[in-house]
Structures
1.
Amino acid sequence: MGQQTPNKILITGGAGFIGSHVVRRFVKSHKQHHVYNLDALTYAGNLENLRDIEDSANYTFIKGNIVDETFINKLFLDYKFDGVIHLAAESHVDRSISDPSSFVRTNVLGTVNLLNASLKLAKGNPDFKFYHISTDEVYGALGETGFFLETTPYNPNSPYSASKASSDHFVRAYGETYGLPFIISNCSNNYGPHQFPEKLIPLFINNIIHNKALPVYGDGNYTRDWLYVIDHARAIDLVYHKGKMGETYNIGGFNEWKNIDLVQLLCRLMDEKLDRPRGTSEKLITFVKDRPGHDLRYAIDAGKIHKEQGWEPTVTFEEGLGKTIDWYLGNQEWLENVTSGDYREYYKKQYQQ
Ligand code: NAD
Ligand code: TYD
């Protein structure tokens, strides 16, 4: 029996936080696939995140920018991918407030470049699929009650969520207009190892390690639903292989926390892990000016993916947060490396420290 040709999957943004967990999962669990990781290695992308799998026979890294249309068209013609899992994006809300244009370039134009190149491959390959990874932030803000469903109308409030909503719309429009086979999933806030320390949890872990202020926006009474990144990667694997074309899946942790409660829990766990007297880290909490357009609450109803695909989160928040803290404490060199360069300048501007 002859060897089967491997299924060629392009994963964009695979050197970033979620992308690196998705790449690792596909490389390790799906030897029948060859994974091509396309990443521009912006401040958020780091090949350190993939050291353990970089020599695998079914893995190739390609450095490149999805905004470069000529490069993308040639790449798709050269490699003839069988599918795309698209995660590359500018992903931080605060950055989108200070520089919205870069979010339009990568998240909107970059996605459209990938869609155009995908159309050409889809014409000659009936099994081709484009899987777009998106966020629950496209739905806007909830009040104290209710959940986002797949049918909830889009109502993005930040430049980040507006750019992601726009890219979601383009993906759907390419499906309707040109018949591109696609799937979209919209997930809640992820946390776990390898997350760049500008998002709430890793930023605060890093600041506690260095005895720096913990800037809680407004009164801290904002709610997010948190999902351990490995559970998200497992959901992406399931949706890529078993999801129905043209469908959207909401993915969430059934795990809502008000920011201030989460920060207090984090402070308590950090005191224990660092063997500091209880209350030490909490003293670092500093209430600062609110984020403009700050969404009050996000909460996902992940009933559809549960019912259709049998997916549910497996890692409890206490367990996931413990593992996350252990990872950052054990990888302080990684933290040092990623927080050199433009990061310090950015935070000086952000918090006038
Ligand atoms: P991240 O910022 O950690 O990583 C983004 C990656 O994309 C980086 O490796 C970066 O180098 C790469 N990239 C950026 N611009 C690029 C470009 N122009 N060309 C090629 N590569 C480029 O992001 P993340 O948190 O891992 O998020 C990944 C995806 O998941 C994003 O699409 C994001 O919108 C979505 N998402 C994130 C969350 C979350 O909580 N982090 C939740 C739901 C959905
Ligand atoms: P973040 O991790 O930036 O994710 P998102 O804005 O995409 O939900 O922020 C999570 C929550 O924490 C959000 O309500 C904003 C708040 N936050 C702070 O209070 N202080 C901070 O320094 C950061 C980065 C976020």
Note: Residues 93, 189, 199-200, 203, 215-217, 222, 224, 259, 291 surround thymidine-5'-diphosphate (ligand 2) (CB under 6 Å).
2.
Amino acid sequence: MKKIIIEKRQGETLTLDNHQTNRKMYIESYGCQMNFSDSEIVASILAKEGFSSTKKIEEAEIVLVNTCSIREKAEQTVRKRLEYYNSIKKSKNKKMIVGVLGCMAERLKKNLLEEEKLVDIVVGPDAYRDLPKLITEVEDGKKAINVILSLEETYADINPIRLNSNGVCAYVSITRGCDNMCSFCVVPYTRGRERSRDPKSILEECNKLVFEGYKEVTLLGQNVDSYLWYGGGAKKNYKNATEEERNQSIDFASLLDFIATNIPELRIRFSTSNPQDMTIDVVKTMAKHKNICKYIHLPVQSGSDRILKLMNRGYNRKQYISLIDKIKEIIPECGISMDIITGFCSENEKDHLDTLSLMDYVKYDYGYMFKYSERSNTYAQRKMQDDVHEDIKQRRLSEIINKQTKHSLYNMKEKIGKVYEVLIEKLSKKSNNHYVGRTTHNTAVVFEKENKQIGEYVMVKINRCTSATLIGEII
Ligand code: 5AD
Ligand code: SF4
């Protein structure tokens, strides 16, 4: 594995160039962790223009919604929010500027500005640096749009402003875009081609977080295993890299090793992994470092070879199972979760049973399960029929969710009586006398506070559980 040499730098606190102007921005985020992380980049870009964040929409000069297009329901939610912002604009704050960021921006472009007249600014995921200019255009009475996708942009130099943070866990983005072209997925169209961020800037951001008191980072990308730094630029252009660039290139296993070695006190998670790109080197690196959490989110989408092929997933059931076996062999207690889509084009009962039997084999710790939602312009929308009836999709989804709930409970019960190290994240929602934190396996644990503080590690003995939470006591 390659080593990266860098001087360890202390973090600096953020200074705003222009905050005396005291303008207010309100940012709401939907969808994946990447969107939440992007909103923190946007907050940083606007802080330089004198904007500070507010939770009161009525007092905001600019209201931004960071949107998701992954399923139709996500888009409907955002449209409702846009209508709500516009009602506030009409009744309470006529000068308010409404902007759409993220995946819907790229997909709907002018529709949102012109036909629906719900927004003033539309900005795609690679154009956030342009926001100050776009705001000025709107102030000059125009509508403003930039949805250009980039082969280079990683926002590597921007210090995100942490929004809604518990001061313990933070997201750090490491790649942008996706080259995988799964046939159901809109992400490659909305977020563009895959590119990776300079490892030194990733380390710098992590060091800064530690300096500010953070204890855990989640390294983010649509496909983290595909991370490849060779001096910048799109991964698709790696074929044109010079020999020197190739020799110095850094893959995801090396990046993990680099961060974990340089900041041993920092807990490291990552998401999302993809079975077709995950290497055994990554699993070995996880095993090597105590500070890399023993948890992998490994979406399978379907247990049927026929459907996996139609989805263009790049692996089959046997390959997926063999990857799971290898993970369990190297890290026996590794927490594993999945995404499954049910009711994809032409899925029949046998395909569905294959998914259920794969779940029985893996016995995932958690799962995120969805009905297939056709997205325009994807390969599946152009070439296949969304032909599984809604009732059947719903019934299959219920069967999958029921099975997952049983597996989650089974895995949780296995943990009763054991002792786990837990990083305290926040107060429990149900009681001010209890904290909630997570184990290395990403399992939520609730326990009495005693005299401990948020951000501390404690050893907790597990006494009981639900299918989603362990309940225990500090020992
Ligand atoms: N319909 C339903 N679910 C989808 N996902 C991605 N695209 C779609 C779609 N068109 C799910 C996948 C992915 C997760 C982030 O969202 O399971 O892993
Ligand atoms: Fe979408 Fe597939 Fe890329 Fe995930 S790996 S973002 S599902 S195209």
Note: Confidence is low (pLDDT under 50) at residues 5-20.
